[in-house]
Amino acid sequence: MNDRAPQTAEAEDEDDFAPSRAEVVAIEAAVDADDGPQLDALLEPLHAADIADIIEQLTPTRRRALLRLYSGEIDGEILSEIDEAIREEVIDALPREVVAEAVREMDTDDVVDLVEDLDAPDRAEILAALDESDRAAVEQSLAWPEYSAGRLMQSEVVTAPGHWTVGETIDYLRREEELPDQFYHVVLVDPRRHPTGYVTLGRLLSSARNVRLADITEDSFRTIDADEYEGDVAYAFNQYHLISAPVVDSHDRLVGIITIDDAMAVLDEEHEEDMLKLAGVGEESHVTDNAIQTARQRLPWLVVNLFTASLSALVISRFEHTITSLVTLAALMPIVASTGGIAGTQSLAVAVRALATRDLTSGNARRVVLRELLAGMLNGLGLALILGLGGSLLFGSPWLGVVLAGAMIVNQIVAALGGVLVPLTLSRLGLDPALASGTFVTTLTDVMGFFAFLSLATWILL
Amino acid sequence: MNDRAPQTAEAEDEDDFAPSRAEVVAIEAAVDADDGPQLDALLEPLHAADIADIIEQLTPTRRRALLRLYSGEIDGEILSEIDEAIREEVIDALPREVVAEAVREMDTDDVVDLVEDLDAPDRAEILAALDESDRAAVEQSLAWPEYSAGRLMQSEVVTAPGHWTVGETIDYLRREEELPDQFYHVVLVDPRRHPTGYVTLGRLLSSARNVRLADITEDSFRTIDADEYEGDVAYAFNQYHLISAPVVDSHDRLVGIITIDDAMAVLDEEHEEDMLKLAGVGEESHVTDNAIQTARQRLPWLVVNLFTASLSALVISRFEHTITSLVTLAALMPIVASTGGIAGTQSLAVAVRALATRDLTSGNARRVVLRELLAGMLNGLGLALILGLGGSLLFGSPWLGVVLAGAMIVNQIVAALGGVLVPLTLSRLGLDPALASGTFVTTLTDVMGFFAFLSLATWILL
């Protein structure tokens, strides 16, 4: 997979899926010139998601100006695409009636997504703009925990009893005025609203009018519990190729439906989260964050690292006598530690990913750990050979070569094992395997790298 | 987002979306006992994707035994879920007629995915099993470059002329016997097969029979070029909430269609790739890899790091005189370097992600770099305060505190800038921003960390 086409900044600027640099420059110019009609003309052909991206990427001053000039055109679609980091700011900048009009057009899942992070007065104002049944649906959804399937679902579901025929169903759909914007299945429910199966629209369209719905249901049918964690929901959609899945409460009653586009967005956010957590960025990061927010997201793990790095310092300080005797050791010791850090990071990234995709389970954990141990030994031997020979020749001391080689082997094994055992242990403890694994593992490889190298040196060279 | 529910190994073993540990143990026991009927009974209720996962996670010996016992039941669905790393092995282990039967059931995009990594004889054998029109479709798809939209699409598209009415279309769908397993749109084409719009099935079902298709098309319609990189296709699906998108050749003629489930799988693979590349794992990693394959995936960047780490050694060796005079410096110097490494990794992860999601563009690059610079200064000051005070008190030397603090500030700024400038530069050069960024950035922070610390120490303390 390493020979895939790269994503480049050039490609991004000319790609089919983002406004070009020239368009953005023209939009900025229209904003600066206070030219509303020109701005409308430039934004009109763009997709709501791209307009939202442009609003996010503008400077705060230009953003306010654009919102003022364009406020009449900000609809539900644009509003639901706006990043949560600036959502409150955008809503506050818009006239009340524009926001009210926008949310009335939105599906309930988008309204939930919009209001869940707003403070109480803003939220109340938006809910007040909805008609009664939508408001009830949004409030029902907000009663489920954050990041649950209940928050992700939309309450608009197309249902039918299983004894209906295709013809009856089509007639019903033609009569019904309030259908969801997008739907992919008709969910079959019994009289107590327990979902019993679903029929794809393709099947419905290609079957004769007299066929009963219960006879053309899909094998792929499965329901999702409303309190299921949204990350697991996204995994299930990807694993089982679901397009939509009915959501049920604890009495197995239908309360809503989740569609794949929302699951895909969650999968993407989960990725972001794993990547940032592995790198020690504490909170979600947004392109709109300022320097103080950015610094604050990152400081916690930096401070932790300051203390864990002091462990390395402590280890080294025990060998000051050795270093004084042979100061070259001070120069060479970071090589072993740093190569161990890379190996630990490699092993860690593979393990965290395998845990997320359920490829690393309690069934094969022992085998995977053994594999890492062997792989660490193999690479340790290979690197030891290069470093040992290089060190011997460069410094004219075969024994120095032996010290470097020995420390390298030890530390590569520690790195490979640490990279898989740390996330496995965190996971067994019910903690997120990505969280802080990086700091643990690099501390481990630093400490062991310095210790192995300096103690071998003390033993062999002094 | 950091307070989301964690994914745990426990949760994974009891979750609704993977076979339980007990089920896997029972399956292993049935395989070991050579008990075919029991194995059938255990696997029958499972989803094809879960059966494939179990096959992947078994030891190679058990895997062969399972394939022998279960070969009659291996169908196209299971086969297309099998990880590419062991696909060849699985196909070779199955009787020819089982494979032939399985591929005949599959949609053409799944056949393409199955055969594209097989060697020529296996591929020819599978293609020979297809009927003529499917074989032509697969061969047409294979003519597009690897990782392109052309490889991802399925050739089965439901099309209709725009002047057809809803009624005519439904009658056609009822008559047509060879419809795709899943379809979400009817694509409107002109007589030269240029796609001109599409109609969702929900719209088709809810409109009266006499409505013309051309009057109920969707705004979301957009086509994808067959040579578009699949990662960009996945981005477009997520950005524009597409469910399916027609694929066109260079003459804008319809050649196939991509559905969101395939785009979601690509998004997931792209993420894996970014994560592993950032961590310096060269190739795709699979749970089925043995230790030698694992070692080989990781050795290249370890060797590179061996050499870049030697740069640090070179820097330190220029200060041997300083270290000999004050050997405590050898113990303290990794603190500054290591904290810089974490800061660089943080900045890097945020930048690589922002480039992938088009949040970091040439339009806001300058602003983002400035923000990183300021954030680096802020965190540098904070960390310098802690480390400087701690160092002063612990070693009773305020000047040592000043050296530690000064080096920390310099290196935090270098880390924050390096973390964003390295991937931006790689991206401008048309290279993958994730590739090797980690090694570059940690080398930079190591070298600068040691240099800043030791040169300040030489200047101030000696």
From TrEMBL, chains A, B:
Gene3D superfamilies the record matches: CBS-domain, MgtE N-terminal domain-like, SLC41 divalent cation transporters, integral membrane domain
Superkingdom of this protein's organism: Bacteria
Pfam families per record: CBS, MgtE, MgtE_N
SUPFAM superfamilies, A to Z: CBS-domain pair, MgtE membrane domain-like, MgtE N-terminal domain-like
Ranges annotated as spanning the membrane: 299-319, 331-352, 373-393, 399-422, 434-461
Domain CBS, chain residue ranges per copy: 216-273
Matching PROSITE patterns: CBS
GO CC list: plasma membrane
Membrane-topology annotation of the record: Multi-pass membrane protein
Molecular-function GO terms, alphabetical: magnesium ion transmembrane transporter activity; metal ion binding
Main location: membrane
InterPro entries the record matches: CBS_dom (IPR000644), CBS_dom_sf (IPR046342), Mg_transptr_MgtE_intracell_dom (IPR006668), MgtE_N_sf (IPR038076), MgtE_transporter (IPR006669), SLC41_membr_dom (IPR006667), SLC41_membr_dom_sf (IPR036739)
Keywords: CBS domain, Cell membrane, Magnesium, Membrane, Metal-binding, Transmembrane, Transmembrane helix, Transport
Record's subcellular location: Cell membrane; Membrane
Function according to Swiss-Prot or TrEMBL: Acts as a magnesium transporter.
Entry's family note: Belongs to the SLC41A transporter family.
Subunit and interaction comment: Homodimer.
PANTHER family assigned: MAGNESIUM TRANSPORTER MGTE
Protein name as annotated: Magnesium transporter MgtE
Gene that encodes the chain: mgtE
